What does this fold into?
Amino acid sequence: MVTLQINGEKHSVDVESDMPLLWVLRDVIGYTGTKFGCGKGLCGACMVLVDGNAVNSCLLQVSLVEGKDIVTIEGTTENLRKLQNSWEKLNVPQCGFCQSGQLITATALLNTNDAPSEVDINNAMVRNICRCGTYTRIKEAINNTLESSK
Amino acid sequence: MGDIKNISRRGFIKGIGLASGGLVLASTTVILESCTSKEIVAFNPNLFVQLNSDGSLILLASRSEMGQGVRTSLTSVIADEMEADWSRVSVKQAVGDVKYGDQNTDGSKSIRLMYETMRQLGAATKAMLISAAAQIWEVPESECEAENHFVVHSSGKKKAFGSLVEIAKTLEVPKEVLLKDPKDFKYIGKKLPSIDVRNFTNGTAVFGLDFRLPNMKFAAIKRCPVAFGTVVKIDKEEALKIKGVIRVVEVPRVEGPFGALGGVAVVAENTWAAFKGRDALKVTWDKGGNEIYNSDKFMSAMTEAVHKSGKVRKSIGTIDNAFNKASKIVESTYQLPHLAHAPMEVPNAVAWCNKEGCEIWAPTQEPQRTRKVVSNFLKIAEENITVNVTFLGGGFGRKSKPDYIMEAVIVSKAINEPVQVVWSREDDVQHGYYHTVSAQYMKGSLDEKGNVTGWLHRFALPSITSTFQPGAKEPARWEAASAADVPFEVPNMQIETAEAEAHVRIGWLRSVINIPHGFAINVFADELAHKARKDALQFRLDLIGSDRIEETKNPYKYNTARLKHVLKSVAKNAGWGQDLPEGHALGLAVHYSFLSYVACVAEVSVAANKVKVHNVYMVIDCGTAVNQDTIKAQMEGSVIFGMSHTFYGKITAKDGAIEQSNFHDYSMLRMPDAPKIHVEIVQNNEKPTGVGEPGVPVVAPAIVNAIFKASGKRYKSLPLKDFNLV
Ligand code: FES
Ligand code: FES
It folds into this structure.
């Protein structure tokens, strides 16, 4: 049994201790907003916040996050909510599949840096692939969020 | 509606036999969504529209949503003609059924084929609502108008759409409707945001991979590393030891273009266990013959083939004469590798086969084809097969091939339970339907004034035909067309093809054959311009020549004036001929595909042998621009997609097995390398044409041409990472 704190709620799950958090979320608990893209830490689709930091959940053994504060795209934190608004305003998503991960990475960036430069944004967002090519709009949406929280 | 030349505002609705593949408006329609309350009455004037008495409007999307915004753009056309309030609209996704007309979401044609139909459906609904109001008020219809979800009488009184439902239900569908004047459009041609944007940003949109059924199992399949190899022996002992693994099932190879590759499935309680179990399987394969496939050798053989004369596919004038009399000759050979689609969401499908039939939930671009192949395989009638279309996490052509859905059907049938088959990224990269590999030889002649007098284009590539007719070695007619139809005013032109055999599954990938042809044609034209010592832009405009309509049987005419217009516009936007920052250079490309005209200018710099793309300018003429923002997004996406294969995309085979496996060796462009993208959409009232694909082919040649300008080095094969440029 592993007890997890996800989006403020406690979940006790009976899973192998080496099962990655991604699959616990998606297949065991049912938080399907966190996506599978590569399973190897290469694409960022599976990003979740662990104590405020963006982590690839596909590589994260569930036993390592017991007792930590996990936030997924279904969660609500101040910066995530603000970013979601900008994402909507600029109509960022194309297919939408990578966007949970993009938003989580961007949230973690704003959690630690309230005035990221273009280089900061690039360095943070380099972890996330968007095959549809929404990078320009993602960057605009992050900047838009920064503008509106000034 | 047969006469496409005459876009009259009056349309006839009778079994709308449009280009949309014969969409028949059934006289009896179905309820799109049963109403939640008994008090609410629904009005279903046709298969795509349901207006409820509470004013809510449900519109049907018959095409698949994979990021191109089709659920918004097609339904907004209905809403516009209907004078509906967009905020009252919700969209329902159609299951696969011929009654909705062609649903194959491929070839950049949803808007092109369905635009007029959608307009008529909206207009007919509006007409019925007006009739209903006129009847209630006992006034002539001509005194009534529809406006933002109301019918308004000239006296000023108004009735909400919802309040007209009871009467409208009793009326006949009009045989003839009046379409709006384009200048009165409210949604068409504007920037409507995606109706799904919120669900995409809060994680609630259900992609295929997110679909769940009670008691559903998960399965991963081990497939032969070599295409079409078959199972000889299975050792499942280790796999069955893994916690969560339930059983191991052999998946037979199902022949046919969209059949299953075959292999061994591990069925488990969750995806993780299925993957682990699959990795623990030991399978002996009969490789079947394609283990002879080695990419390097294959490329050499194709290159040799295009350096000899080939099969003539088109000939104008006498090419040999042109070459004999030439003042200058340019020859070049271009080599492009296989590509994999790698949509962000891997192929996956849920199937539930039981006594009643089979129900499927899948991210598919082609629900009708799916229904047909599943029906043939299970030998049960199509009526007993339901194909539900989820959101697609990208498609790019991969998800129009239902092989992965067949796998889910096979496994569900074997275990008698609902199952989701999930491909890993490795499966996706190694067992796809690859964009073809190609070698192209070009030879051109210039006279002493630097005009092009001869143009020879000879290419070899394993054809997509091979997927349908195993063993086919010649490019299909349509695969030769994008080389043969270049609208260049050159007196002597010859297009030839050479043979090449496929050793993997070949399939269409976003913009298909236009990727190799767009590359070779645009880079070669640039080489000729350089040899002629002319400005690349002026040279290209001269090559296209006079303003004219190219002779073709296609009702959409190839208009060279529109082609030149996008080229001139993009050059202007990019500041062609003006000063650039130190070390920067521009390169251009122009290409016509999916009936749209696209031109691109890339601004690059090269420092320490590393290329940086700073700006990319795109101009598209796709006729009537139904949704400006979607078109802009598609151009932005095309630039990134094109840059991914310009810099990184390369799939190779060794002894028949694909050598790449995941995003570390099949890389994608990432944010730090994304340029600033500037898009202009030509505004006109021509018929709408393709958007999703035509932006792709121009990107790679524009960049390669810009690199030449910046560094003097001409790269004739891709990806550029092979030259250490990234
Ligand atoms: S799925 Fe975790 S990084 Fe790709
Ligand atoms: S929006 Fe489709 S992968 Fe990013």
User: Anything to note?
Assistant: The beta strands of chain A are 2-6, 9-13, 47-50, 53-56, 69-71.
